[in-house]
C-alpha cells in the first residue's frame, strides 16, 4: 500500500538525512520504526504522510505516485492515513470528545450520525470518563490516547504513531501496545516509531531500523 524506491531527503542545503530508502508497507501489516534520536524517524513519518516531499526517489501511497498528487487530491489521500504526532496537537479549547469528533465535523458529517462512534472509540481507548474535559487537564497518557482516538475516528487504512509511548509509564505503554495490536488484528496497518526496546521486545513484529540515514529491515 506504501512503497519507497531509492528515496532521499535533505533539508535545505544540509546533508541527506535519509538515503536510499527502499521498502514497502503492506496492507494489514504491523511494524516498528526505530533508530537513535535524530536518525530520521519523524522525517520518515512526514514523508509517509506526504507533509514532506523527498528530494529524490519515488514514493507511492495507495498506488499513487506522490510527486503527481495535486493539492486538491491530497486531503482525500491523507484521510486514509491516521497520524499520532509526538506533541499530540490537540486543540485546548475543545473537549476530548470534540477533538476526536473534529475530523468528522470537518468532513461535514452530522453529530447525530457520528456521536455513538466517537463515544465508542473514546471508551475503547479508556477515555469514556474523560470525554467532556479540556486537554489541559488531561494527563500525558490521556492526551496520548485522545490523539490516538482522533487519528482513528476516520477509520484510516494505516496508522502512523510517532513515539506513542514516549510520555507514559510502562503499564500504560503495554496497554497502548495492546490497543495497536488489536487495531491491526481488525485490519489496519500500523507503524510505530519508537526507541523503546522493551516495548518492541513484547511483540514479534517487523522492525525498520534507521541508522546514518539508511534502513535495515528485520522481518
Ligand atoms: N525542519 C528541519 N530542518 C532542518 N533539519 C531538520 C528538520 N527536521 C529534522 N531535521 C534534521 O533531520 C535529522 C532527522 O531528524 P528527525 O526528527 O527526523 O529524527 P528522529 O529520529 O525523529 O529523532 P527523535 O527520535 O529525536 O525524535 C536530524 O539531524 C534533524 O536535525
Automatic annotation (TrEMBL):
Ligase listed as a keyword: no
Keywords per UniProt: ATP-binding, Cell cycle, Cell division, Cell membrane, Membrane, Nucleotide-binding, Transport
Alphabetized SMART domains for the sequence: AAA
Main localisation: membrane
InterPro entries hit by this protein: AAA+_ATPase, ABC_transporter-like_ATP-bd, ABC_transporter-like_CS, ABC_transpr_LolD-like, Cell_div_FtsE, MacB-like_ATP-bd, P-loop_NTPase
Record carries keyword Nucleotide-binding: yes
Membrane topology, record value: Peripheral membrane protein
Molecular function in Gene Ontology: ATP binding; ATP hydrolysis activity; transmembrane transporter activity
Similarity section: Belongs to the ABC transporter superfamily.
Protein's UniProt name: Cell division ATP-binding protein FtsE
Gene: ftsE
Amino acid at each position: 500500500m506504501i512503497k519507497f524506491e531509492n528515496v532521499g531527503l535533505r533539508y535545505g542545503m544540509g546533508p541527506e538525512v535519509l538515503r536510499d530508502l527502499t521498502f514497502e508497507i503492506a496492507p494489514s501489516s504491523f511494524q516498528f520504526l526505530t533508530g537513535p534520536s535524530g536518525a530520521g524517524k519523524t522525517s520518515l513519518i512526514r514523508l509517509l504522510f506526504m507533509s514532506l516531499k523527498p528530494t529524490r526517489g519515488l514514493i507511492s501511497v495507495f498506488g499513487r505516485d506522490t510527486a503527481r498528487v495535486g493539492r486538491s487530491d491530497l486531503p482525500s489521500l491523507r484521510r486514509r492515513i491516521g497520524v499520532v504526532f509526538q506533541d499530540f496537537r490537540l486543540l485546548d479549547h475543545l473537549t476530548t470528545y470534540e477533538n476526536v469528533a473534529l475530523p468528522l465535523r470537518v468532513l461535514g458529517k452530522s453529530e447525530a450520525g457520528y456521536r455513538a462512534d466517537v463515544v465508542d472509540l473514546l471508551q475503547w481507548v479508556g477515555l469514556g470518563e474523560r470525554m467532556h474535559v479540556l486537554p489541559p487537564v488531561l494527563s500525558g497518557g490521556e492526551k496520548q490516547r485522545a490523539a490516538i482516538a482522533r487519528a482513528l475516528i476516520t477509520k484510516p487504512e494505516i496508522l502512523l504513531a510517532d513515539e506513542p509511548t514516549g510520555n507514559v509509564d510502562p503499564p500504560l505503554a503495554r496497554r497502548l501496545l495492546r490497543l495497536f495490536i488489536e487495531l491491526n488484528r481488525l485490519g489496519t496497518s500500523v507503524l510505530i516509531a519508537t526507541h523503546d526496546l522493551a516495548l518492541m521486545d513484547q511483540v514479534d513484529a517487523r522492525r525498520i531500523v534507521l541508522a546514518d540515514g539508511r534502513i535495515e529491515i528485520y522481518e
